[in-house]
Structures are given as structure tokens and as C-alpha cells.
Amino acid sequence: MLPASASQLLNPTDVRREFLRLLPIALFVIVFGIAFGLASVQAGLTDWQAILMSVTVFAGASQFATLELWGQHVSLLPLVAVVFAINARHILMGAALYPMLRELPAGRRYGILFLLTDANWAVASQDYQNGRQNLSVILGGGLVLWLAWVAGTVFGVTFGGLVADPEQYGLDMVLGCFLLSMVLGGKRSPRVLLIWTVAGLSAVAAYWLLPPHTHVIVGALAGGVLGYCWKERRHGG
Known about the structure:
With 237 residues, this protein is mostly helical.
């Protein structure tokens, strides 16, 4: 597959299409934004602090985790450690996108990564396995998810009591089901099946045996190391 130019990777028409493509997922993101807005106010953040955090951080799990450490005297080092541990998977996600990202100028490359989430990374990864370089879903899909997260936070700090517990309605499973559908829709081979199996089993074991949130990193590393060691056989040239 020949490398695409930067203009091809981020065509405005493609960005708009990917924005709409992830709009259904964004509707569920709004619900969790509402829950975060409510939880942040209950934890002692002001409305503008909660909204500013969602605008600039844009990391749902990390933002919820920081609320557990929030108080009159915020301990900065544990706060940074928790956020880094939860978001460390983005290091591997960004590395997986490097074959496409390297075609962009540095400023655009790192700017687009601000909008990287599990959902748009999964779509981009699946498309890449199927022979399509699709950075437009990182930009367009990430933008609609960011807008949904911020809008949900704004609504939550104002009317958050309407959706205090998304898990009660099973909404916490939406993203997991979406990511599973991306995995099942990707390339199928014994190699890919074994990689996902090792990653899944490692994550489950780490969930029960290691500190909170480390299962995400352990699963990603286990699958990534196996994938690196077991190179995919390429036919032709």
C-alpha cells in the first residue's frame, strides 16, 4: 500500500463523513459527560473548573479518577500518577497510528492526537487492517466525541441529577460493545485471534491480581509484544 499524502489523509469531505459516522457513539458520550458534571460538582469543583477540565483534558476515565483525589489540598504527584497510569494505553495507540501520522507535519500530527479516543482509534485501526489509511476518523470522529463530552459536562453541572448513574441503565457497556464490534469486523487470522486472546486473558488476570487500572496497560502490552514478535507474513514485493 502506497503512503497517502497529508491532504489525502485529512480531506475535509472525509472528516465530515467520519464526524457523522461516530455521531451515534457521541450520543452515549453525552450521558457520561452529564454524570461527570454531576460528580465533579459533588466532589467540590466549581462549574467552570469541571467544564475547563473536560475542554482541556478530554479523558473520561482519568477525569472520574481525579475526583477521588480531589479535596481542599490536592496532592499533585498521586494525581499525575493516576492519570498517567490510566492513559498510558495512548502511547501504544499512538504508536499503532504512526504509519499514518508520519505523513503529517509535526504540528498537525500532535494536534490531532488530542482528539484520540478508544472509539476513533478502533475505527482507524480496523480501516488500516483493511488497507485504508483513515486519519479523518481521528479528527472528525474525535471532534464529535469531544463536543459531546464537553456538552454533557455543561449539562451535568447544571441538570446532572437527571442521569446520576449511567451504569444503572447499562450505558457503560456501549463503548465496550462498540470496540468488540470493531475487533470482530477486522482482519481474521490465527495470528490476530491469538493476539487478542493473549491480550484479553492478560487484562483479566491483571484486573484481579494487580492495582486498579493496570489491567488496561498489561493487556495492551501483552498483545503488542506478541504482535511485534510474531510478524505478519506479507505476500509479494
